[in-house]
Amino acid sequence: MPTTLPAFADATASDSALRRFLHGLPGVDPVGLEARAAALGTRSIKTTAKAYAIDLAISMIDLTTLEGADTPGKVRALAAKAVNPDPTDRTTPRTAAVCVYPDMAATAAAALAGSGVKVASVATAFPAGRAALDVKLADVRDAVAAGADEIDMVIDRGAFLAGRYLKVYEEIRAVKAECGSARLKVIFETGELSTYDNIRRASWLGMLAGADFIKTSTGKVATNATPANTLLMLEAVRDFRAQTGVQIGVKPAGGIRTSKDAIKFLVLVNETAGEDWLDNHWFRFGASSLLNDLLMQRQKLSTGRYSGPDYVTVD
């Protein structure tokens, strides 16, 4: 099992202790949070900074396909795009990872071998997480054995919303133990947590349990990543590092489709957590269509004109 942080050993000793800790976190001011997120989203980005931000955003994408109709051919095509997003411009950065279901992890691993692009696999009965723990752990073991470098797990939202925090904590720790050297991203499905206070509690719960990343959403519900919920999670990782010295990554996922959106999120990162998080080891975008828009905007900056949607491959 992962080691419990000494500073929080008492907080995680029992269900009641964990509940006291999580409910003792400062309450979130929804109006203030949303106003700050909106204000940061109005920051003007100049041309040179925009070019840097676009390349940085490309390098932070977990290029994702999580559909029932996924095929090995589709995964191999996505892997090729991740390694070489713009065949006409070899200076284009590679994406951070390709994210697939566990049964496609081996295909992705073979296609990405030697490229430096990671294989991320969702697991733990994604997206609902409605399965017994032994089934979830088997899901993780299969993905890691197939070559996954990163595991994206979903928490048991039913248990969390019922106040069974220790159950959620212990499941995350058990999954982390099965990951071995693979990094663990813990998905909260913020659209189902109802309140910002719950998102803050889930963030701390995930970090205490050993998450390497905390992630907003599966992309499978109506409300996914927003500037406000991502800002709240960035505040959590910032404060967690200040107290423990341990840095945790953040991954907003779902609904981020344009370069303008991505740059707004990068401003949030810089202004909230700081420059240390402006790296794909600590910040990711879970996306499929975002890369296409980033490539078109990148082409516009270099040539002065748009090439149109036919310039990029359709995922």
Pick out its properties.
315 residues, 8-stranded parallel β-sheet, 46% helix
Q: In a nutshell, what does this entry contain?
A:
With 315 residues, the protein is of the alpha/beta class. It is 46% helix and 10% strand. The longest helix is centred in the last third of the chain and has 18 residues, at 227-244.
Characterization of this structure:
There is one protein chain. With 315 residues, the chain is of the alpha/beta class. It has helices spanning 15-23, 30-40, 47-59, 72-83, 105-112, 133-145, 157-161, 165-179, 196-209, 227-244, 259-272, 290-303; strands at residues 61-64, 97-100, 118-123, 150-154, 183-187, 213-215, 249-251, 285-287. It has an eight-stranded parallel beta sheet. Helix 4 links the parallel strand 1 and strand 2 (97-100).
Inertia-based shape: globular
Could you give the order of strands across the largest sheet? 7-6-5-4-3-2-1-8
Regions with little confidence, pLDDT below 50 for 5+ residues: none
Number of E-state strands: 8
Fraction in beta strands: 5-15%
Please work out how many helical segments DSSP would assign.
12
- Report the end-to-end length measured between terminal Cα atoms: 39 Å
The largest sheet, given as strand count, sense and whether it forms a barrel, is:
8 strands, parallel
User: Helix proportion of residues, in percent?
Assistant: 40-55%
